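Hi Y.,

Following your request, here is the sequence exactly as I used it, all 155 residues.
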Amino acid sequence: MSAQKILIIVFVVLVVIFVITIGVGGCHGGGDSDDPGAVKSLKGLQGNRFLTIGDDASVSPTSCGANGTQALTVNPTCVVTFEKRAFFRRSTRVALLGNRSLRVIINPKDGPRQDESIGAGECFGSAVNHSGGTMTLIASSGFSTVVFLRRQACE
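Below is the corresponding structure, written out as tokens. Let me know if you'd prefer a different format.
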């Protein structure tokens, strides 16, 4: 083999190693994993895929049901399970609005846990990546709460 061919092979190997290093480095967030605000760093990566029950997501108990209108009835709790999807798929955006105050706990399989309380009429937004996870909705004060799954981001 000539010196020129060896030089080209070495150059290609170095470029491949550089691209892999950049790709792996870009996958790691710079935020504190104990800080629920780190989930908000996904905002720019969320795409336009909003949570739809029945589309790689299910509810438990079934009495929460989506009622065909993207409304969940939380009495006293409702767990939404996000199925694992292909690696190259974008995150599933979660945007919801409750008619009463409630607690939202998002526990992704890959990423930081988020636990927030929202008031009646407040919009809550987050995302769950392709690895899947769960979102637990807990109604406040034992009242039945209707949660509307939005198809657009919170303002």
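The helical segments are 3-27.

Thanks again,
Q.
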